[in-house]
Write a structure and sequence with these properties.
The protein is α/β, with parallel strands linked by helices. 42% of the residues lie in helices and 20% in strands. It is globular, with a radius of gyration of 15 Å. The termini are far apart.
Length: 147
Amino acid sequence: MDEAAAGARVVVGVDGSPSSAAALRWAVRYAGLTGATVDAVASWDLPGAHTWSAPAVDADVDEDIARQALAQELQKVLGAESAGAVRPLVVRGNPVDVLLKAAEGAEALVVGSRGRGGFARALLGSVSQHVAHHARCPVVIVRPETG
């Protein structure tokens, strides 16, 4: 591995959707070709954190659940050996803000074309669309794999 690639990072957004699974696989393959490391980023937030409608919840419990879900998704998509080579990052906040911050200084930001929310016929989800417009590094948008 040359010196330029030694600190190279690829950031990938993971939300459990088919598109994010495809993005995770793409990011790992790309990092393998370039010698970069992979940061798998999942964001979480308290339900109703920005409104008055939600009951009080334990933020530590929600973060623990998010960490477990990310670890399970990495194992499911990549297998145990490959999942161990990926750095999991769980960050509280809006997915767009979290991904943009995580991608600062990265070689690339990889996201799925559509996440868990939104309209079934949309070509791009709101997160992929926002990061494509605002990221300071190249953005790769991966469509879900079809059988």
